[in-house]
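Good morning C.,

I know you're traveling, so I'll keep this short. The sequence:
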Amino acid sequence: MPAKHKTRSAKRKWSRKVTGHSDALTLKKRVFASRSPARIAASLKRSAERSHRRKSSPYRSAMSMLTFFINRAGKTLSDERRRILEQAKQELRHQFGRS
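The C-alpha cells, ready to paste straight into the viewer:
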C-alpha cells in the first residue's frame, strides 16, 4: 500500500499548530492582526511575562514568536503588514528596555 502524501494545505498548517501548542507562549487571539505596532508589542510582552510555557526569557520568547510569524507568513504578507510587524519588533525592544 503506497504512503499517502499530505496535501499542500495540510503541510502549511504546521505553523498554526506550533503557534498554538508549542512551549513558546500563550498568545491572545489575533494579536498579529492589529494595525498598531505598540499594541502588538505590548500584547506579546504581556503574554511572555505571564506565560508558564516559555523556556527562555520573556524578551527572547516574545521576539522569537514575532519573528516566527513574520517568517512563516512569507510572500503572503503584504508590504504594509510587514512594515507594521517590523515596527513591532522595534517597539518590543523599546518596551523591554533594549537598544
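Safe travels,
E.
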